Amino acid sequence: MNTMKLKVGAGLVAGSLSPLFAFAAVDTTDIVSTIGEAATAGAAIGVAVLSMHYGIKLYKWIKGAG
User: Fold this and answer.
1) pLDDT, tens digit, for every residue of 7-42?
2) Is residue 1's pLDDT more than 60?
3) Is residue 61 pLDDT above 60, yes or no?
4) Rounded to an integer, what distance in angstroms lies between the CA atom of residue 4 and that of residue 47?
5) How far is Cα 29 from Cα 27, in angstroms, rounded to an integer?
6) What is the dihedral of CA 21, 22, 23, 28, to 10 degrees?
7) CA 32 to CA 26: how far, in whole Å?
8) Domain locations in the chain as residue ranges
9) SS (H, E, C) 14-60
10) DSSP 8-state code for residue 1
C-alpha cells in the first residue's frame, strides 16, 4: 500500500509541474537578437552624444588657453 501511495504522489507532483515545463520550450532567439541590436544602437548614440559634449568642452578649453 505504501508503494502505491508513493507512485500516486509522484504522479501528482509530476502532473502539477508539467505546465511549467511547457513554457520552457519557447524560442527567444528573436527577442534576444532584437534587444542586442537595440543595445548596439543605444551605445552608438551614447558615444556620439558624449563625444559632442566633451568635444565642445575641449574646444572651449583650447580656445581659452590661447
Assistant:
1) 767 776 666 666 655 565 677 788 889 999 899 999
2) no
3) yes
4) 66
5) 6
6) 100
7) 12
8) 27-66
9) HHHHHHHHHHHHCCCHHHHHHHHHHHHHHHHHHHHHHHHHHHHHHHH
10) -
